[in-house]
Amino acid sequence: MAERTVEPRTVTVCPTRTRLDDILAAVKQYWGFTRLRPLQETAIQAEVDGRDSLVVLPTGGGKSLCYQVPPLITDRTDVVVSPLISLMKDQVDGLRACGYPAAALHSGMTPDDRRQTHNDILAGSCRLIFVAPERLMAPGFLSLLSRIDVRAFAIDEAHCISHWGHDFRPEYRRLAELKQHFPQASLHGYTATATERVRSDIVEQLGLSDPALLVGRFDRPNLVYRVVPRVDVRQQVHEVIERHRDEAAIVYCISRRDTESMSAFLQRKGVRADHYHAGLDADQRRRTQEAFSNEDLDVVVATVAFGMGIDRSNVRSVIHAAMPKSIEHYQQETGRAGRDGLEAECVLFYSAADVMKWTSLLTKSAEEAGRGEDVIQPQLVLLEHLRAYCQPFHCRHRRLVEYFGQSYEASDCKACDVCLDECENIEDATATAQKILSCVARTEQMFGAKHIADVLAGSDTDMIRKWGHQDLSTHGLMTGTPRKRLVNLVNQLVDQGLLTRTTDGFHTLKLNAASWEVMRGDRKVRMQLPPEKTTGTSRRDKTADRGWIGVDRELFESLRALRRDIAHQRHVPPFVIFSDATLRDMARRKPTSPDSFLAIHGVGEKKLADFGDTFMACIKAHGRPSAE
Ligand code: ADP
Q: Ligand 1, from 12, 31, 580: best to mutate by most atoms within 8 Å of Cβ?
């Protein structure tokens, strides 16, 4: 198996049968792109040549184009295996809008539509057929395909075949039989899942023979990563959403109840938000997902259940109201931001309490399933990796990339809170830690973080009166620091191992050897300043505005409204008409002739013919065209 990892922006010219010019001509004609992304050419070439392949590119890396181009330039019909109807529909809508002959066969179609599609396939007028694995392996469908001499199968979301993946789908296992049914065809797996174990499992399960293993760079330079101490999570989440007003955001919570209360809070603040979790019926889930896709909803507050079917490309922020349970999950979930290549923000609101919550959830569910230490331990290791990621001492891009076994060359990513110098340390952290620890000592190591915070803040609560803690010397020692910030500081000490929290369900704080070292002054402490208000607007200036240079924002909004109207009329999601990147390019260059419209990023011949006049009329109505 030949593995290649390609550096960003490398163009690999391969002197084989299909010339790069032919590929680029097709890409320009249908999609309006002028360049290929790293690995796309090699992946396209493998499919054209009939060599099995496994392509691993991050979400938004451009995997679809790799299987969409080969049937165009070889004039054959290829098959794409896709796990969800919604994904198939969006892809087919998107391709047809580009003038690309594609079709899907799924259970949501009327008998007439199905018959028509069968006829189109037999007539050879489809270049790509999208189908779910169950339908593909049904006898009737296999015999249909044998009549059209299929030469290549692309397996999208190929990690679904692996037990080790996060979305295992038993139906995918039957795809191993494809090689027997179609010995003349090549198989091509596509996934964003980066782990080695899943990759080798895909190769083995699909029975790939001497595949080209094409592994791209996992870094997503257009994403800005931030980990912010959690103080008042609802307000903090709202602030991030306000920074991207009227734009798409996904907020991840651990529990179903949290998704509901967070979404209700955001609705009260006037945000077009709704919640999504596995406890809702299928119909309601579908409606929420469609509303998000159609831009009728800006924010979905969800558990991990909101996943694979989301292909809205202009998600501008992915917010974690609490820590997920592994870096793999984090990468997967944040991967949904900025698929259009434009800048997007990923904020994780972190508290050491999350580690505790996950530890108890994982332990409980393993015990309920009758599983022991051997199952819990690896999960705790995954948790520990993410905990380490959340500490404010390392570039977040570097950490993520290195976690997945790749190197990170740049010394400063300019796109994470650490490199942007946003993580503020407390100046007198050791003295602050000593105050907290001595409060734990004075209260006899019998209480949790909230009570310690109350004592330090000098509060007057029933508990304080009951135990006479108003008379302690530590009562009111940190008056003026809000209670929520104090709780966060206590949690930071636990996180650094400078204080222990019991795991018996009471979460009592106990001093340990490290606590005494700090109290004796033998050990220095670093602590992050929990935000009073989460962020300042300066952050927006530094990162979020990069992709707006030269864009007439008012015109962009008019074009966006026009796109939404057209999408509604045609019953397709707006991103099928044009991506945000295309609209920004239009609002920057203001084309008023067919030639200049065709030069816009993402405008191919069909879209010029279908939408050119309407969008150019909007540009003209808006004012003077740019001097291009
Ligand atoms: P993936 O399936 O890897 O998550 P997609 O295939 O959905 O990614 O591509 C992400 C986005 O990038 C899409 O909007 C797609 O049109 C765009 N894209 C893909 N290839 C190119 C390219 N060569 N140039 C410009 N945009 C591209």
A: 31
